[in-house]
Amino acid sequence: MSGRVCASIVQRASSYTLTLSSTAQFQPRAANICHFSSWMNSRVRSDISGEDSGSWSLSGRHLSTRQDLNFQLNQVQINSILRSNEQTISVAEFDDRGLSAVRKFESNQLPANTPNEDRRSSATCLQSKGMLFGVFDGHGGWACAQAVSERLLYYAAVAMMSKQSLEELENCMENERPLPPILQWYKHHTDFNYRESASLYIDHLRVFWQELIESEEHGEGMSPLEALDYSFKRLDADISLEAQVPLSNDLMKSTAIQVAFAGSTACVAHVGTDGIHVANSGDCRAVLGVLEEDGSWSALPLTRDHNSQNQAEMERIKSLHPPSERDTVVTEDRLLGVLMPLRAFGDVRFKWSHELQQSVLASLESGVDLDSLNLYQYTPPNYLTPPYLDVAPEITHHKLRPQDRFLILGSDGLWDELGNEEAVRLVGEHLSGIHLQAPVSPSEKQMKLGEMHELLQKRQARASPALDTNAATHLIRHALGTGEYGELCQERLTLMLSLPEDLARMYRDDITATVVYLNSDLARPQHS
Fold first, then answer.
1. PPM-type phosphatase domain spans which residues (predicted)?
2. pLDDT in tens, 512-525
């Protein structure tokens, strides 16, 4: 958003009238799903009225600009909003399994949707080695992201367990003894679980480990690469199956169907002494922060976005369908003109046959309100040769080096606002407390007064101290509040945090960021 547009919006708000028209220069952002109001009831209607009366109507809700658009947030209020979901966890350097690859991690979320459709997970593997971190970006509702955030780390951890450890789990289940813990979770107090589906999730996780026990090849467990790949695919298959089979009660059944018809992208990192493995499906992202010899910071992407900007991904999708569909598989930068990410969990509307979709929705009790579950009788255009979507993750392995200092995991709401290099610089300067300022070059000495003023504004912005102790909060603050010269603009930040819930989603996405600080001592040569 340019400073001119930002100032224009604030000026309009100060007169207590919000004017939105087709000629407005403050353009709403693109969402993961578009065009079809029947597809997702959280989509914002384009028919906004009441411009001249100091009030307006949006999606059937009447909002007063005097009541809802408070652009006078003070610093305390801004900090309260930004920090309400932040989390900081220090990790013991040593445990009974050796040296930890992670020193600590910091995480935060800022919703635009109500409720938030992003989820995050973090846990230590107790029956194998390493830590798992995940960021999940839901679409079509939060149901799929919620289920995946609860379950995927369990699937990966179980896959890495040895056959002997899995047999111990099974023996405890058979004899109704307490199970040895698989993961040590790090939950924020606002996190919650699908309690009504817990028994179903445990049953299917048990079926998974029983199959691994029966496999002659399992032995000491899968490698992190194999475990991440298999767990993504297996969980998505279980989500699909659970929506099709009879379940013990109507609530569990409706939840399973809701999870399957919603969707979620996922980016999961396993951090261990052998390095970092990142599995990505969709458009979340993992970026490594590297401290160079000259003291500068550089970004090393460990994922590639699975969207229409990725030409290799576009070719992969098109190659799976007849040549006659090359022009319709992806249109307007979206899968079948609807979905922005090209890989995802759930989203059975892009995976199942039309007949199976109708059959499953018809299996719900007649009294169930499909709209309340974000479920609609809708088929994407040109739906000829399903499946059009899968969850198969792209996996990267990176061996830790002394210069590798931190890993940033973020949902696309973060990367919509910040580039890789900018995000790494922000965290790097936050970590070191040093805000680099280059000397004035000979060419800069010849600048005109106005140009020099702009340069000094940029440098002053870089020299300003951090307002947040949590690096994830620091990222989110800058993602929403950075001005044209790299300075933190209080006016811009206030604007973005003051938008009412029905309007916020038009101008920003849910943002989730997790910063994992690495133990660089692991990669240093050991001297006696």
1. 102-518
2. 999 999 998 776 66
